[in-house]
Amino acid sequence: MSTQMDINEITKLLPHRYPFLLIDRVLSMEPDKSIVALKNVTINEPFFPGHYPHFPVMPGVLIIEAMAQAAALLSFKSMGAGASEKSVYYFAGIDGARFKRPISPGDQMIIKVTLLRSMRGLFKFAGKVEVDGQLAAEAELMCTVKSVP
Known about the structure:
The protein is built from 2 helices and 6 strands, in the order αββαββββ. It has about 150 residues and is of the alpha+beta class. It has a 6-stranded antiparallel beta sheet, covered by helices on one side. The mean pLDDT is about 95.
């Protein structure tokens, strides 16, 4: 089963909002397996004026964050739940992060995340970001959902 989501459905599941929401659309998703999401990168992104104004490049940490947001969507959809004020989705680890090419205004990020395993509230994912069919970044992400006190 493949699920697509527009921005309205995404914001029902993720707590992130502008300027930190880094997923524009979900192209496909198989709950408990994988997700393919999209981010259109524009010159209007709030980080570009300060991140190499003479040669705007998307910060690597935000590329990783986009993978994490796609992973969160996959997790929430798989669990049949969304973000709530009673819990927060946290990073538990990032392994093997590699950046293969810069991402610049005008690029379209295709974010591919696969669930590797899920145990006792800890999720491990393999993530890739492609631009024009080329690998731009990859990492393994570990995330967990924690209750807010």
